[in-house]
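Late entry, evening session. Most of the bench is empty. Finally got around to the prediction I had been postponing all week. Sequence below, unchanged from the version circulated by S.P.
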Amino acid sequence: MIEKLIAFSLRNRFLILLLAAGMFAWGIYSVRTSKIDAIPDLSENQVIVFTEWMGRSPQIIEDQVTYPLVTNLQGLPEVKYVRANSMFGMSFIYIIFEDDTDIYWARSRVLERLNSIGSALPEGVTPTMGPDGTGVGHVLWYTLEAPGMDLGEQRAVQDWYVKFALQNVPGISEIASFGGFQKQYQITVDPEKLNYFKLTVADIMRAVNANNNEAGGRKFEMSDIGYIIKTTGYLQSIEQIENLAVRTQNSIPVRIRDLATVQMSGESRLGIFDYNGEGEAVGGIAVLRYGENADEVIQRVKAKMTEVAKGLPEGMKFNIIYDRGELIEESISSIKTTLIEEMIVVSLIVFVFLWHWRSAVSIIIQIPITIAASFIVLNAFDISSNIMSLTGIALAIGVIVDNGIIMAENAYKHLAIRQAELSEQKKGGSSHVE
């Protein structure tokens, strides 16, 4: 079989060279379109379901949220196993699918099952799916530098301006905010005053909920002019909350300020984000969408940051604290340098030992063609160009040239034997004539 293939190649040299040139051109195109990352994505094919029920203990979360979700999510098609974790006020479900399952098909199956759970969960508890990212999707971290600005104000800028702008970048699954305080109105109730007025906390909650909404009216026409009637009732200040009437006793309204203290504060936190020991910081994490090119997405995020920075408050700017793009560039540059050095060294060694430039060229030309062809295979199997894959190519250069060297040496051997046989035949023929 090998002999026939070699014979066919020798008889059709132009066709073989044309095929090699076509493969090399295809390989160059594959190199340019290959996904670039620093590390390979070895994470499992999973969908995360997150449920929040603040104020409840881990045991209550386990019994009333995690267990019903796990039992309902089991049995989905192409699921290997389901993991769960319950903690204070939060539940995490990890549905692990088969490796060849399309992630968006899996997410749609999970969403269908979540919609059918219905009354299995407590009232007001709504499970949500996590972003369509992977375990190595955190490609860029940043903080907002704003000397003298309150942490709550920084978090508000992050949540209501920066986050929405960066989330529109193609390839980004989520911008996860961290640090600072999430502003909220807090009503601190005095239990003695509640007891005096014979009221409960539920009465205060009903009063706030009933007065914090808007109601639509209808269109009213008068003198050929149409008027839209509506009520504006959203609470916008501490004073408005304090003046809300909870109940009227003896024609005198009992207001919230008579029962509690209202203040602007931050939501309770389970931790803080400290940057280099210089104090707390506010920022976000750019999460890469499944199957995207990390290097291209990082460049898009940086370009968007430059645009978003123009609308930041005076004195505020971005500070990138983790950028996988730098690691990608250093890794790719190091591997490229190694490949070039190995190609030069191997070429010199082949030329010196064979001492025949045509034979050396026939061996050396295999290196770029084989490397380019390997990227065709990488793209076919959706494998990114990372440290592991490129290092494997670098280590395989010796194997690439071994085949050519062995074939060249074997050809030299058979040519030498053939020449010896011809010379003996000539000598034998000349002696017979004499």
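Two things to note before I forget:
The mean pLDDT is 84.
The two ends are 46 Å apart (CA to CA).
Will write this up properly tomorrow.
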